[in-house]
Amino acid sequence: MSNTRPSRLKPVRLDPLDSIGLVSKGDISLLDPKIQESYFSTIRSRCTQHLSSVQTPANSDEALAAAISLLSLQQSNNDNGVANAPLASPPSIEQREISSKDRDLSIILLSMRKLRESLVSTSRNDAFALQVYTFIIRSAILLAHPESYHPALLHLLRRLHPQNPLSKEEETEFVIYHVLDLACRQNDLAEAFWMRNYYGLINRHVDLLLKALVSRNWVLYWKVKSHLDGYSAKLAEWAEDGMRKNAIECLGRSYLSLKREFLENHVKRNWRELKERDGVTWACDGDAVIIRQMRKR
Question: Which residues on adjacent β-strands are paired with residue 259?
Fold first, then answer.
């Protein structure tokens, strides 16, 4: 009769994406092409599922920001050789309320980096590599995570495309993303114009958006942004705060007072957000916003 007893310990549930490490940290599992393809299938499935689940909640932007902050902390600890190091101060309420979806996002983003590292290490530039990079770029743009899409975008255009050309439609698509990222997120308009000319990009919406950014035309910016596809509109959002700040300053120099409804409609934010997020110091008197008082003679 056997004396062995069933273990009372719960079996460890290991995430398939988390079970493989970074190539730069010595894990060579992803150097196998078959494992790369299997790993990508898991990433694509999980990322698609996550993106579909965060489209409806009103606080999805805050949830994504929390997950990305968590990812940055994990990467910092890994780089310093620290695993699950205790924080110096107690976690905030926001940190304690990070949901499983947010943690899943941090794993997905880190997995994208792992897969990109493995493809670079194996110098893979076939159709599969193109598929991986195009998927990562599009997904990371929607997740507003430039640490994932920016290096992937540069590698795609500078290394993969010359060796294994994209179709003309795909080349135009990713050149647009590159130009918009330069102009809207990096605020490098000179480089954006140079890159547009270098690739011979002809796109009316891109031209108008660049014109709006150069002239700081808030109305034109919003008009063009409403006609962009989802990926391009997400990139254009990086310039929104700066454009809004300039529009608020213009209103402040031009008016003594404004109707509150007009102000909120014009800058696309309610009064509370203008006070808290934009630092507006104007006074609100009922339905009127007092920008500055007339000087008494």
Answer: 288
* Helix, strand, coil share of the chain (percent; to 5): 65, 5, 30
- Best CA proximity match to 181, nearest among 129, 143, 224, 234: 234
DSSP structure class, residue 183: I
- In angstroms, rounded to a whole number, what is the distance separating the alpha carbons of residues 263 and 212? 20
Rounded CA separation 13/124 (Å)? 32
Residue 296 per-residue DSSP state: P
Cα–Cα distance between 271 and 78 in angstroms, integer? 42
262-268-270 Cα angle (round to 5): 75
CB 33 within 8 A of CB 124: yes
Nearest CA to 179 among 190, 163, 166? Answer: 190
CA-CA distances (angstroms) from residue 206 to 183, 202, 220? 10, 8, 12
- pTM beyond 0.90, yes or no: no
- Cβ-in-10-Å burial (0-12, 13-18, 19+) of 78 comes to middle
pLDDT single digits (tens) 63-93: 444 444 444 444 444 444 444 444 445 555 4
Interior angle at CA 12, CA 7 and CA 17, nearest 5 = 160
Helix (H) or strand (E) holding 259: strand 257-259
Beginning with the edge strand found earlier in the chain, give each strand of the sheet holding 288-290 in spatial order. 257-259, 288-290, 283-285
